[in-house]
Amino acid sequence: MKKTRRRYLLFKLHREGPLIEEKQLSLTIWKSLLLLYGEIQAADSKLYMIDYNESTGEGILQCTLHSLQQVIAAAVVIGEINGTAVSFEPKKTSGTIKGLNR
Amino acid sequence: MSFDLGVLATDVSTIDAFGDIASKLGLIGFAIVGLQSEPFKTIKENLQVCNRVILHGKSIISVRKQIDKTRRKAMIVSVPLRSIDVVNWAAEDNRVDLLTVDPTQDNRLRDTTARLASTANTYLEIQIAPLLKSSGLTRSKILKSYRESVSTAMDAGMGIVLTSGAIYPMGLRSSVAMAHIGILLGMDRAYANCAVSSLPMSIIEKNMKKLQPGFVSNGVELLQKGDEK
User: Fold this and answer.
1) Which of A61, B56, B59, B111 is deepest in the core (most CB within 10 A)?
2) Which CATH code for domain A6-92?
3) CB environment B177-198: b (16+ within 10 A), e (fewer)
4) Minimum CA–CA partner of A70 in chain B
5) Residue B26's closest chain A neighbor by CA?
6) Contacts of B168 in chain A (CB under 8 A)
């Protein structure tokens, strides 16, 4: 099986209201990806939340190189999570987690 | 570095909240509809707020009357894409900056309008707020309307500007986020970056010159009055 190339996305979730849990955020991005691009694309994205700090809103998402643009677009069009207004800000993308911290 | 030309806040008290979020997202300013009297002012360090006017007239005569009254008071003047007569007139008029796509209406951007607009440097405005508020079939219809308009404008050489259309502060997006929405709407990466950063800045710079006291029209400037030595 051909190895898929991964990409890591450093992001910041701005919010106006209560804290957003990692599971809620991950599920909302997944649902948004599913709605916008369909079941096959969502499955092929191999989306995974590597890290997320609930208080600062900063985190790292992992996905395939092929689906990176779709994952970012799906996350950016999220307007609210459980009634809390949010604004997803993609900060940096890299092929390694180490690269995000440089 | 980007400037959001389409904030639709309804309350003056929210301007500071918009300013806070805009600073966090790296914006250098935003244009707000009808909540301030000056064409522009600086509310924070490196953050400007401009006045924007939307001309809602149904006939050319009423829009012309409105634009005569408002052009010198507003940094940005826009016309929604509705009646063909008004839109074609606005596309050719140098005083109008933006033609705004209204996804709730059936009126689409026509090839002829886009060609007129490309010669007069009138830009197509796409507001992302309806995409954030909707889902499913409704969002699919909005995407269809936006993608068709983007395609028509790009084919005709008409510039496109992406704005937030935000009515609350969290409706704002960073320039990188907006560029990704541009790609979602059918633009290539370079074009999307241009629609978010350089085009809005060029509109602001052009209109800053127009608002100078000595400005008469493009290329004509009052350098000295008769009684001055």
Assistant:
1) A61
2) 3.30.70.3250
3) bbbbbbbbbbbeeebbbbbbbe
4) B184
5) A89
6) 16, 85
Q: Are B40 and B61 in contact (CB under 8 A)?
A: no
Query: How many contacts, defined by CB atoms under 8 Å, are there between A and B?
Result: 61
- Cα separation, B141 vs B103, whole angstroms: 8
Residue B222 domain-assigned (yes or no): no
- Does residue B70 fall inside a structural domain? yes
**Domain encompassing residue B102:** 56-162+169-212
> In this predicted model, what pLDDT tens digit does every residue of B130-167 receive, in sequence order?
999 999 999 999 999 999 999 999 999 999 999 999 99
| Helix (H) / strand (E) containing B19 | helix B15-24
Q: Is residue B51 part of a domain?
A: no
- Say what the pLDDT of residue B228 is: 60
Task: Name the residue among A14, A76, A90 with its Cβ closest to that of B170.
Answer: A14
CA distance B185 to chain A (A): 10
Whole-model pTM over 0.95: no
Cβ–Cβ of A85/B173 closer than 8 Å? no
